[in-house]
Amino acid sequence: MTITLSIWIVAAQWVLLACLGLLVITLYRQFAYYTGLKHRGNEAWGLSLGNAAPTFSYRQLSANQEPAKQFQPHGTRTLLIFADPHCGSCERGLTALRQILMNEPSKVPELLIVTGSALPMIAASGIFAPFAERVALTDGDRVLDAYEVRQTPFGFLIDEGGIIRAKGVVDGRAGILDLLKAKRGAGAITTPSLALKTTSSRQ
């Protein structure tokens, strides 16, 4: 009986050690993942700085039944933001953007918020409601793929010549204002990236 009990104790210890080892490996991978995002996330996300911003067709959320419009990123400095309706980081970012528009409207150029989500998801969320006239409904992930967006909320600052001057995560006031610091015709910048959980990715 004593021998059998000892065997069970030893076996339990090995199982516990294996579980702890798996936990350590998982935590290490998560740490490495988030550290990688912090140091090189924005360089890996989004269409490269200095490229011409792709054109695309879209329907305006507030006028969905009207003919599609064409986004032509030429002639007007534009803040282009990609967001999803059921994304906590997107909600925080859009809330911060709304506050900036209310309190410091001169800081925000032409604004277009892009989503490839279905209307029922958008209606159920409600985070786009304050921006209805500035929300572009696109064909699924086609536009996100054209801009190489892999995580939301993500933004681009496009100059009057249609060139991408800045890009970055826009999940709060700091990220949005950093994006807007790029000067007309100046060298391109990339805003600091915050570690985002996978739950705030494209949905």
Give a written overview of the molecule.
The structure is a single chain. The protein is of the alpha/beta class. The protein has a single domain, classed as 3-Layer(aba) Sandwich (Glutaredoxin). The chain contains 5 helices and 8 strands, in the order αβββαβαβαββαβ. It has helices at about 1-45, 90-105, 120-125, 140-145, 175-180; strands spanning about 55-60, 70, 80, 110-115, 135, 155-160, 165-170, 190. The protein has an 8-stranded mixed sheet, covered by helices on one side. The longest helix has about 45 residues, at about 1-45. The N and C termini lie far apart (about 55 Å).
The proportion of strand residues reads: 15-25%
CATH class annotation: Alpha Beta
Q: Which residue ranges are poorly predicted, with pLDDT under 50 across at least 5 consecutive positions? A: 28-43, 186-203
Q: How helix-rich are the residues, as a percent range?
A: 25-40%
Structural class, from secondary structure content?
A: alpha/beta
CATH architecture: 3-Layer(aba) Sandwich
Q: What does the largest sheet look like?
A: 8 strands, mixed
Mean pLDDT reading: 78
Seen as an oligomer or otherwise, the chain set is single chain
With strands numbered from the N-terminus, the spatial order across the biggest sheet is 2-1-5-4-3-6-7-8
The ordered string of helix (H) and strand (E) elements is HEEEHEHEHEEHE
